Amino acid sequence: MMGSDIDFMAGVGFRHVIEDGLVVLSKGDMDSARRKYVVDDLTNLLSEAIRGLELVNRNALFVNSDQRNAVDTFSLLDQYLGHGYDPSWGNQLHIAEEAFDKLQKNEEPSDEARTAAIQLFEELLTKIKRQGWTGILEQPASHKIFE
Question: Rounded to 10 degrees, what is the CA torsion of 31, 132, 69, 49?
């Protein structure tokens, strides 16, 4: 399989997880095993993105490989949601993470958390469909912490 094929498949898989996350947030029907996978995956995505956001905000110059994954996750989302210019979308990450933490515990998230998560993932999905899957090509100039 060529690199572009792998990137395409990763993009399709990522998009399906986002779409399924919206189904879960909207209280739609889904197989329990798939629901668990989606909720766990998106909880992890949000957690990693928040850690990455915190590292970027601290202007961390050196990070270990675990932290690098967090910065990469944040950078990926920022390519679609912030374009390196408007980090205010990052405020929604914490609220969306709250929704998925509750769902992971089989609890109902607050309406505010559910709405924030839906808005975040709808915007992400819209931008992915419009721009296509880019993966992590490069860090936005405002987030250059690796040289």
Answer: -70
